[in-house]
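This protein record is not my work; I was only asked to verify it. Where you disagree with what is written, explain briefly why. This is what I was given:
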Amino acid sequence: MIEPANQNPRPRGRPRLAPDAQASRKALLRAGLAQLTERGYVAVRLDDIVAAAGVTKGAFYHHFRSKADYGAALIAEYDAFFRARIARSLGRADLAPLARLQDFAKMAETGMARFDFRRGCLVGNLGQEMASLPKEYRAMLIAVLEGWQDMTATCLRAAQDAGEIASDQDPETLAALFWTGWEGAVLRAKLERNPAPLRQFSAGFLRLVSK
């Protein structure tokens, strides 16, 4: 007897992970984000990662070819997480555009305070270690920052349309300035273990750009 054809064939590409495998991969990514945002890439060993994730080295190598491959996955994971965080604030229709940027700064401060300012930005941390990292990370990190800048420039353009920013200002340049300064403020907040640098920078930036 001929069996009927599968009406819903599995799409080609990467095979679906079993539930246990999905859980171990998520645990590894969560552990890596926690470890690297606090301690950096070079200082964290594979043993630290698998111990924090509660999995074996075999499970690690089931998902990732190497620490470099794992780090690339962490960059993508962090970018997706942080884009969603940015979008939550900058997409708020109930706030004026510059107030949305202020809301992002407050939300980011709350996130750092949750961990007593021990954890910084993964992208900023890796950028400081770039001389010791796989060379392909450079383009990845730049692309992530440029993506965040594009989202911020859209918000600043809306602020310009609303008359909050002068018409002769360039939203793209201002967005680049914001992220350069913000990453520095995050680094100093982590160093000092308090929110003052974040507040000083966000307040100063808003004063700078407001009409």
